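SAMPLE LOG
Freezer: B-3
Tube label: C17
Construct: single chain, 371 aa
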Amino acid sequence: MTIDGSETCIYCKRQGSSREHVAPNSLGGNCTMSCVCEKCNKELSAVDQALAENSPVALSRIRLTPKSAFTTFLGGYASFEDSTGRETAVRVMNQMVPEVRPQIFVKGDQVQVRAKDRESLNDLIAFIDSQISKGRLESTRVFISEEVREPCFLMHRDKAAVVSSSTHEKAEQFLHLVKSQWPEIKAKLQLIKEHPTAQTLPEIALTIKFRPNDEFRGVAKIAFETVALLRGSEFVLQEGFDPIREYIKGDVKLPIPPPGEIAVDNRFVRRLGEEFRLKFTEEHGVLLLFSPPNLVSFVLLYGENPYFVRLATLAGDDQWLRAYEFSYTKEGHGELSELELAQHLLRLSSRELGISAEQASSMLLELQTKT
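STRUCTURE (predicted):
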C-alpha cells in the first residue's frame, strides 16, 4: 500500500516524489510513501543495504525470515570445508539454510566445480561467456585472504562474481588462465557429471563486514520516515529536523576513537542493550515520544534489535506518544492504538514493568473485554 505524501522531498526539500519504503523492502517492509524524490531515494538505498546486510540486524533477518516469505541472503562471505579440505562458498538464506553458489577451481588441466544443480552451473557458464564477450572478466572483483588455498571464481549473486585468492598476483594469473582456456574449460563443464552430496547442514564460517555509521543512518531513516507517515510530510519539513535530515543524507561527523575502536557518530542514534526493557513488538516497531521540546524514538527491529534515536528539538506544549508496527514478512503494517500498545507491553514486557505473570494475564483479560 502506498500512502500519499508531499510533492516536496522530505530530504532535499525539492519538488518531486517517488515510492519510498518506510521500513526497508529488504527487511520485509511493505508500507510505501510518496515523499522522497527519485535522486534521494536512490542515494539512500546504500544505508538500507547496510542495515540489512552489514549490521547485527542482518543475522536476525536471515535467522527469522521464514522460507515461505520473500527470499533473503546474508551479506559478507560464508563457506564450509568439504571432506577433501577444499573451501566451498555458500550463500546463507532464510532460516540460516546454506545454498552452494556456482564456483569453479582450475588447477593445471583439472577443472572442478561446485554448484547446487545443473541449472546453477549453466548460469555460471552463461555469465562467464557474457563477461568475456564484454571484455569484463579481468575486472572481476577480487577477495584476498591468506587462508585461500587455491583461486576460485564464485558467482555469488545472479549477475555478480568474485575471485577469491591469497594474493592479487595469483588472482590475475587465475583470471588470465580462465579467459585463455575458456573454450576447453567450458566444454569440460558442460560434460561434467553430477555428484550429489549429503543434505546434512555443514558448519559454516561467516565473515561479515559491519558498517555501523550506515547502519545507524538506516535506523534514523526509519524513525524519521515514520514521523512523516504519522504526522504528515509537511511536519518533518520543519527546520528542527534539519540536523537529522543532513545526518541521514550523509553528514556523518566521526570522533577520534580510543585505540583499537571504530569511529562511530553517536549524535543521533545509539544501539541499546539491557537498558532497553520495553519490548513492544515481535516484528519491526517504532515508538515516537514528544516530551517538549524533544522528539525521540525507540526503534525495534525483528523484536530483538533496539535503538534510541534523537529526532528533533521542536516548539510545542503537548506531550504525545505514537507507535507503529511493520511486519518483517510483508504481511502488513499499521499504527498501534493505546489499547493495542498496552496489550503488547503486557504480553511481552510484564516482568520489566514490575508486573507478575498472573497480574499481566488478568490485566490482558480485562483489556480484551474492552475491545
